[in-house]
Design brief:
By secondary structure, the protein is an alpha/beta fold. 43% of the residues lie in helices and 12% in strands. A hairpin with a 3-residue loop joins β13 and β14. The protein starts with 7 loop residues before the first helix and ends with a helix.
Length: 508
């Protein structure tokens, strides 16, 4: 019986220390285990961190190098940069099962027990010591650092209740209640937001990182813990809550800097993977790629906005929540109108506003403007940025050059004659199409500039063109409680009928 040749089902049938020795089992540290399994993945050409997009050439190679070096790791980056997700995926590099002494509180290795219980079991039962098997999913522990975390939480403390119930003196190590770190022996232990730990608590980690052992309340106790530590932290200047104390930072072998998606395409992959779109929504709502691009562009604009605190960052959760909300906005509209299928519109992006306001940290100027105004502004800036991907830049076509036609002239002139149109958020598909087609030149603009677009995508682009012209100050756009009103930018008097006064029945 060769341990390395045994399947997981065969492994868990080994029940005693003697059987384990006979199998040829050899103990490995958790860092060695991670290293060996990573090497195996390389040799087999298998992916190491699946579903982590945008880090293939930056963060993931750094993590792989750190694992090969058997380092403790600190993932440094702004919120929403997949730091915790990466740490959780490291469990896939652990062996599927490892043996422990049955009943051991500290996951004692049967060949090298560290706890008093484990040592007594081996001394008493020898090769008949009962063992059990720990799955890799159970070898991951995580703690969110908060200012109220104590040394007892992480390391342990004397438990007077245990002392009383077992009738033991406080000098007996059996009265110790172990904290999260000892319980993570032979596991991956993650501390999220490390700077939030009080400095004196961070100091308690020094000896664990350097020597691998712990001390509790002056006990002459040495537990040579075997732990892969992974820390996550925002940049130290993110807030005034705290920082990583220098001696602790010095003991963390590899500090790896994460980042936001570097392109819309990568952002779309992340959003599509993480967004929770229900099956009923998928059947009802069709989302065009341009709408997906627009969501990602909103996040890009937010990260560059003067109103948003760049030190806080803009999480990828913004695009995920915004995507879910615009799909729900379209679904709600279809339910109100009794329609079995509908398509995303620009007007559905009203659903993205709550996702934006809840995900951005505003600087003082942004707070003065108001979260809602800033959110609407970010959507507008995203439309302006993407407008020239689909249409000519309006400023370039306004000049009266010989043989140069302004593709927007007919649209702008129609509004200039005093017409106004309200695009309501809950218009039926038919009413929405009729409202857009009522604007002369709009359909022809899209047909000429985007001839390959499908019918529903053309409607999206028609509305997109109106918003883009407003962003380039060619039309006036006003947010209403129930939709958006478009009219001539300069005119304040209307000599022609107001299309916004028409209700849905008139448009049908």
């Amino acid at each position: 019986m060769n341990y390395k040749e045994l399947t997981p089902d065969q492994l868990i049938k080994i029940h005693t220390l003697g059987e384990l020795k006979a199998s040829g089992y050899e103990s490995r540290s958790v860092k060695q285990e991670l290293r060996d399994n990573l090497i195996h993945k390389f040799e087999q050409k298998l992916p190491t961190f699946e579903g982590i997009y945008g880090y293939e050439d930056t963060v993931i190679p750094d993590i792989e190098r750190a694992i090969l070096s058997m380092h403790n790791i600190n993932l440094l980056g702004l919120r929403g940069q997949a730091k915790t997700r990466i740490a959780r995926q490291m469990t896939a590099l652990l062996d599927e099962y490892v043996p422990i002494i049955a009943g051991s509180e500290l996951n004692d290795d049967p060949l090298h027990p560290i706890s008093r219980y484990g040592k007594e079991q081996v001394a008493e039962h020898g090769d008949h010591t009962p063992i059990s098997w720990l799955h890799r999913d159970e070898r991951y522990s995580e703690k969110l650092a908060t200012p109220d975390v104590s040394i007892a939480d992480l390391i342990g403390d004397v438990d007077p209740i245990k002392a009383a119930s077992l009738k033991l003196p406080y000098s007996d190590e059996r009265v110790i209640h172990y904290g999260l770190v000892p319980h993570a022996h032979r596991s991956i232990f993650v501390i999220n937001e490390l700077p939030d730990l009080q400095a004196r608590i961070q100091v308690a980690l020094f000896n664990i990182l350097q020597e691998g052992d712990i001390q509790i309340r002056g006990f002459k106790l040495r537990l040579p813990l075997d732990i892969q530590f992974v820390f996550t932290a925002n940049p130290e200047d993110y807030t005034n809550r705290g920082s990583i104390v220098t001696p602790l930072k010095d003991r963390i072998d590899s500090q790896i800097i994460t980042h936001y998606p570097k392109s819309r395409e990568i952002g779309k992959q992340i959003t599509a993977q993480e967004a929770d779109i229900k099956e009923a929504q998928q059947q009802t709502v069709v989302v065009d790629e341009i709408a997906q691009d627009l969501i990602e562009q909103i996040a890009i604009e937010a990260r560059d906005s003067e109103y948003v605190d760049e030190k806080s960052g803009v999480s990828a959760r913004l695009t995920i929540a915004a995507y879910e909300n615009i799909v729900s906005a379209a679904e709600r509209r279809s339910l109100l109108n009794g329609e079995k299928q509908t398509y995303i519109r620009i007007s559905d992006f009203v659903g993205a506003i709550p996702a934006i306001t809840g995900k951005v940290e505003l600087v003082y100027e942004g707070e003065q403007e108001g979260a809602g105004i800033v959110a609407h502004s970010l959507v507008g800036k995203a439309i302006r940025t993407m407008f020239t991907d689909y249409f000519p830049k309006p400023d370039d076509k306004d000049k009266n050059k010989e043989n140069q036609e302004n593709p927007y002239a007919e649209i702008i002139e129609w509004f200039g004659e005093g017409y106004t149109i309200d695009l309501l958020n809950d218009l039926s598909n038919t009413a929405y199409e009729k409202a857009l087609n009522a604007i002369p030149g709009l359909a022809n603009l899209v047909k000429k500039q985007q001839p390959q677009a499908k019918a529903h995508a053309k409607l999206f682009l028609m509305e997109f063109a109106l918003h883009g012209l407003a962003e380039y100050s060619k039309l006036s756009k006003k947010a209403l409680d129930t939709g958006t009103r478009f009219k001539d930018l300069l005119s304040s008097m209307f000599s022609m009928p107001d299309m916004g006064d028409l209700d849905e029945d008139d448009l049908n």
